[in-house]
């Protein structure tokens, strides 16, 4: 029998709880993800404990206990070493809405408790001495890099449809494959996702997108077709496999944050900021998450429009290339409108999009057994590539050279303009500030109070 070494203060605290329960004549084990991740040599951030003791008993035996889910047998034990969810062994009755058990029966058999869990790699337990209990061969599946349900896959997915998305997420984040029977059941029962709350869908998709190989995860998602059955429309995220998906997956890992990866998916599919916002709202993304996505898309659109205009102007004038001065001004306007972070994100996404090779198929797609498709179909907003390339080449330099990044960085404020004018306050004040800010940003004016106030007093070129 395998003995696992969980060496951390968090694990020490779990062992103390387990031994305290055992002294009362009951069983207790560390279960689930902490066991899986220990075998995979991954960091452990929390430890769950399963026990034969009733939740009311656990509440009596420990000083600080939060009754987080008494009806389901779960309490939270708080110690100096950490916080632990302690759940009574249980058997679940029929499920309602493809998500929640209709009834819960407390039991005393740990194997039966493990039997109700989703995947074999999550159905393992470890006692206080580190001895592994693995009745469903989770360790074998981990060694085979395989996601497999406990028991019949159709039964597991019919009980809780969210498990289908969890299978895709685990396969992606842990870089595993999905067992054939588990995959067939997932595709067969994918319509069962419909009742699942969008918040739970978001949680799985976000973790998958933030993972080390987002292309692999999204390849599984697209191939399964499961998002077409989400409770609310997910628009471009639910599109079937296409050359655009191939292009997206080829470059998805080239941007670092999940926010930029969502933005990149929208851009490659030609989605507008409004369409992306509809998806964000459907997924119940937080304000902070949306702030990391939507301004990037809007900044990208503004820069693309500027590149088009510059290329058109160059063509009308018979010039070989677009003038950098106009592009630099448009770039500064985008920074003022959407912020430095959004503009940097837009440049990163655009660089990734232009870097996709024609006909290239990412390894993640091959590993998910997809068929090769036609050449990449990336949207190119620029009528002529030179202007877009100028933005990509010069944009970071322009940004680094900017003495101001936001309106508050100016050496003068709105009140300074009002004091130098006899006009009443109004929108014209901000318009003047923005006009001066642009000049400072592109290096046409120094960010010095006297110089800026001289411009204000002269009233020249500030309307």
UniProtKB/TrEMBL annotation:
Its EC number is 2.7.7.72. Residues 28-148 form the Poly A polymerase head domain. It holds the Pfam family tRNA_NucTran2_2. It comes from the Bacteria. One of its GO terms (molecular function) is CCA tRNA nucleotidyltransferase activity. Belongs to the tRNA nucleotidyltransferase/poly(A) polymerase family. This is CCA tRNA nucleotidyltransferase. It comes from Paenibacillus arenosi.
């Amino acid at each position: 029998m395998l003995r696992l070494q969980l060496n951390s203060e968090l694990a020490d605290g779990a062992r103390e709880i387990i031994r305290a329960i055992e002294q009362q004549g009951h069983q207790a084990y560390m279960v689930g993800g902490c066991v899986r991740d220990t075998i995979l040599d991954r960091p452990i951030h929390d430890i769950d404990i399963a026990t034969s003791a009733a939740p009311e008993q656990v509440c009596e035996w420990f000083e600080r206990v939060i009754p987080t889910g008494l009806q389901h047998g779960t309490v939270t034990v708080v110690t100096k070493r950490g916080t632990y969810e302690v759940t009574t062994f249980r058997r679940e009755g029929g499920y309602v809405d493809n998500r929640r058990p209709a009834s819960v029966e407390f039991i005393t058999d740990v194997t039966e408790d493990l039997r109700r869990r989703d995947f074999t790699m999550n159905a393992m337990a470890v006692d206080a001495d580190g001895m592994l209990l693995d009745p469903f061969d989770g360790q074998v599946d981990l060694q085979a890099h395989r996601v497999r349900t406990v028991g019949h896959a159709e039964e597991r997915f019919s009980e809780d449809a969210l498990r289908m998305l969890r299978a895709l997420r685990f396969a992606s984040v842990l870089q595993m494959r999905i067992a054939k029977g588990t995959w067939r059941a997932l595709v067969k029962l994918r319509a069962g996702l419909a009742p699942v709350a969008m918040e739970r869908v978001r949680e799985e998709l976000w973790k998958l997108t933030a993972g080390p190989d987002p292309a692999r995860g999204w390849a599984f998602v697209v191939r399964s077709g499961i998002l077409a059955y989400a409770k609310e429309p997910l628009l471009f995220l639910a599109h079937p496999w296409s050359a655009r998906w191939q292009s997206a997956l080829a470059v998805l890992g080239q941007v670092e944050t999940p926010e930029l990866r969502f933005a990149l998916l929208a851009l490659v599919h030609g989605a507008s900021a409004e369409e992306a916002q509809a998806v964000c709202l459907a997924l119940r993304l937080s304000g902070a998450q949306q702030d990391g996505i939507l301004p990037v898309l809007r900044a990208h659109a503004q820069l693309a429009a500027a590149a088009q205009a510059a290329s058109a102007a160059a063509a009308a004038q018979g010039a070989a290339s677009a003038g950098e001065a106009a592009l630099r001004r448009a770039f500064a306007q985008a920074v003022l409108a959407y912020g430095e972070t959004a503009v940097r994100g837009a440049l990163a996404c655009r660089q990734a999009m232009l870097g996709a090779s024609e006909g290239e198929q990412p390894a993640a797609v091959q590993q998910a057994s997809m068929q090769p498709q036609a050449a990449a179909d990336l949207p190119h907003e620029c009528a002529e590539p030179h202007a877009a390339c100028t933005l990509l080449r010069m944009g970071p330099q322009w940004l680094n050279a900017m003495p101001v990044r936001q309106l508050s960085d100016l050496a003068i404020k709105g009140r300074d303009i009002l004091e130098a004018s006899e006009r009443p306050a109004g929108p014209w004040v901000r318009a003047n500030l923005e006009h001066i800010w642009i000049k400072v940003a592109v290096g046409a004016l120094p960010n010095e109070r006297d110089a800026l106030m001289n411009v204000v007093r002269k009233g020249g070129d500030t309307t």
